[in-house]
Amino acid sequence: MQIRTVPAYQEMSAIAAGMIAAILRANPAAVLGLATGSTPIGTYDELARLCREEGLDFSRASSVNLDEYLGLDGTHPQSYRYFMDEHLFDRVNIDKARTAVPSGVAADPDAECARYDALVKSLGGQDVQLLGIGPDGHIGFNEPADEFVGPTHLVDLDPSTIEANARFFASEAEVPRRAITMGMDAIMGAKSIILIAAGEGKRAVLEAAVQGPVTPRLPASILQNHPDVTVLFAEQNG
Ligand code: GLP
Predict the structure, then answer these.
(1) Whose CB among 51, 73, 178, 184 lies 3.0–4.6 Å from 92's, allowing a Cys bridge?
(2) CB within 6 Å of ligand 1 — which residues?
(3) Annotated catalytic, 226?
(4) Domains of the chain by range and CATH?
(5) How confident is the model over 63-82, as pLDDT tens digits?
(6) Model confidence pLDDT, tens digit, residues 201-212
């Protein structure tokens, strides 16, 4: 695990985007594992700039996202599909048909989970997986639990996650209570992983994840078992 601390959010974002861009240049048909939350926004801004100004080509790339709120369809402004369109997909020359986000409104959510895992597998897994980290140590929406869950699955969101994500909704009551998330099998199956975190508020949970015991009570700690993880921490957020 490589851990790099930089002072500024923008520097962290430029490094993460540069790593993803290098993977894409080496393999224009790369499979990009993408994440939501406020932390990756700067990375997506930089990727959009590289596409616009330096011709970084997404036309043959595919992407798979980590998670989606249950009950929100892609037209809901707080859905993760909407987020990805707004912050990245509509700003680069990626073929939207090759961008995947779990559906939060599938008639059969369990079947959607199975479909999603089959899709990730059919793509050969992610060449790189970008991750943020939740205040409780979650990655994707893999919340603290008694055991790590391998497949894509439905989760009840932790009260701390609902509280943390309420800032994006009109009120806490509007935050969906459940989500669909890629499980640890697909995350750990990525060839490389970049975990980004910014601000002093994330320092303690990040330190516990990279230095503490590997435990499903702190889901990000599983990354210690992956052979190619880069952790980028920005001391200032924004
Ligand atoms: C959400 C997402 C996570 C993300 C986390 C942290 O819960 N499901 O994938 O890592 O938020 O978000 P932020 O970057 O806004 O702190």
Answers:
(1) 51
(2) 35-39, 66-67, 132-134, 140-141, 161, 165
(3) no
(4) 2-234 (3.40.50.1360)
(5) 999 999 999 999 999 999 99
(6) 999 999 999 999
